[in-house]
Design goal:
Elements: E1 9-12, E2 15-24, H1 26-38, E3 43-47, E4 80-84, H2 91-96, H3 110-113
Antiparallel strand pairs: 1-2, 2-4, 3-4
Length: about 130
């Protein structure tokens, strides 16, 4: 049970893990895994459970004209849950505490973490201005 939404942990593949992100597409898994493993975290990735699908609404038809086809539920894209074995890991603290680094030696910024920038630009912290 997490203290708050920013610090979640649960058991992934039988190992207690700090949750980094849930419902992550495969491309984002590769990005996160690269950063976290470079920073010496052991990363565990498991498939996220499929979202619950609501029952299809009943369609009124005239007697004797029932359709033999049943609509197929929409398929959800495959997503994953990414966690690290350090269950004290907190994404917010790691980013704003400037604890994570890119393989080229720059500090991971929020924009880089969210993949809004391709290169992490080291920003001068507000307290050093």
């Amino acid at each position: 049970m997490a203290i708050n939404k920013n610090h979640e942990f649960e058991e992934l593949d039988g190992v207690k893990c700090g949750i980094v992100e849930k419902n992550v597409p495969p491309a984002r898994v590769a990005f996160l895994k690269k950063i976290l493993e470079y920073n010496r975290f052991t990363v565990i990735v498991v498939s996220s459970p499929a979202p619950k699908v609501a029952a299809a609404p009943a369609v009124a038809t005239e007697p004797g004209t029932e359709s033999q086809q049943t609509p197929l539920p929409p398929t959800a894209p495959e997503t994953f849950t990414v966690g690290v074995t350090d269950y004290t890991f907190n994404t917010i603290n790691a980013i704003f505490g400037r604890l994570l680094h890119t393989p080229d030696g720059h500090v991971v910024t929020l924009a880089y973490w969210q993949q809004k920038e391709n290169i992490s630009h080291d920003e001068v912290p507000y307290y050093e201005m």
